[in-house]
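Bump. Still looking for Large ribosomal subunit protein uL4 structure tokens.
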Amino acid sequence: MKHDVITLDNETTGSVDLDESVFGLEVRTDILHRVVRWQMARRQAGTHKTKGISEISGTTAKPFKQKGTGRARQGSRRATQFRGGQTAFGPVVRSHAHDLPKKVRKLGLKTALSAKARDNKLVVLDEATSDTGKTRDLVARLGVLGWTSALIIDGPEVNEGFARAARNVVGLDVLPQQGANVRDILRRDTLVLTRAAVTHLQERLK
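Sorry for the wait, here they are.
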């Protein structure tokens, strides 16, 4: 399907062919949900932890004799029922990551791209460059374009001046094409792809 190509000055400079197998799929929320959960699980630190009985400083002596006191038998002051004792079945350091088939990950990315195309929130940009590298100049251009929440995906490498200008703009993310992912695409209102990004993503996902 044909899609107009614009510049950062909001001028049309031609069109580009978007592959239906990448940008024209049916939107499946179940696939998007699985991929986003997989991404978030991989990001989770898993460093939460409580101390077991062997990790608590304290005496190893029996609190009092086993029989004859009329009280319940106790074996350690570091046990769960005592103040300052261990936590029973508490969390331990672990990885929350789980496996997800490559085919599902690939389908999720294609589905996210298709969702933006279907909702008319996909913009194809001629190139994402900045001669000055100034945030003020870029913000002025974004105001004309009306982008308040956008993800810009460039080719294999992001222009250094553009990345520097976009670094402090609230609501704007910039990624190289190999960093394109479902979560970042969905969390921003507008998806902006450069010509180079379209070419590389179609080669990668077809």
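The chain has two domains: 2-45+99-205, 50-90.

Edit: fixed formatting.
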